[in-house]
Design brief:
Blueprint: H1 2-35, H2 38-41, E1 53-57, E2 74-82, E3 91-101, H3 107-143
Helix pairs in contact: 1-3
């Protein structure tokens, strides 16, 4: 019995830490959204999550060289939307912000851009997880 209780406590603690991390992530994401002036391009914060993906040009988002400058490139935050109804071009890229040449970008600005994209991806992954959880629940309810 103690083992089951210990596992339940550990699971509860893990879920609580994820929820705490998610709330802090959302707070930071909103702060960066204003700092990077993305709110001028997309005034409704929640609209950011309508996009399927977000990336950056001119900077690396790979774990092994996170934030590294790609020389002679321009730093731009790009979001990708998909149109299932489109017949030929299914995806559309939109710029959320242009930040100049990668070789001359300010270190603090570079970090803010990388953090913004990682925070967006973190929250988007939670939204995806919730979406699939709801779908599984829906299937389970239909088969009972």
């Amino acid at each position: 019995m103690s083992s089951a209780l210990d596992r339940l406590k550990a699971l509860t603690s893990k879920i609580s830490s994820f929820e705490t991390a998610r709330k802090e992530n959302m707070r930071l994401l909103k702060e960066l959204y204003v700092y990077l002036k993305i709110d001028e391009k997309i005034p409704d914060f929640e609209s950011l999550f309508a996009y399927k993906a977000m990336n950056v040009t001119g900077l690396s988002l790979q774990a092994e060289d996170l934030g590294a400058i790609k020389e002679n490139r321009y730093v731009q935050v790009i979001c990708i939307a998909y149109d299932k109804a489109a017949t030929s071009k299914k995806s559309t890229n939109s710029s959320l912000g242009y930040f100049g040449k990668s070789d001359t970008i300010d270190e603090a600005l570079k970090k803010a851009i990388v953090k913004f994209i990682l925070c967006w991806r973190f929250e988007k992954s939670f939204m995806t997880l919730e979406h699939y959880h709801d779908m599984i629940c829906q299937v389970n309810n239909e088969t009972e």
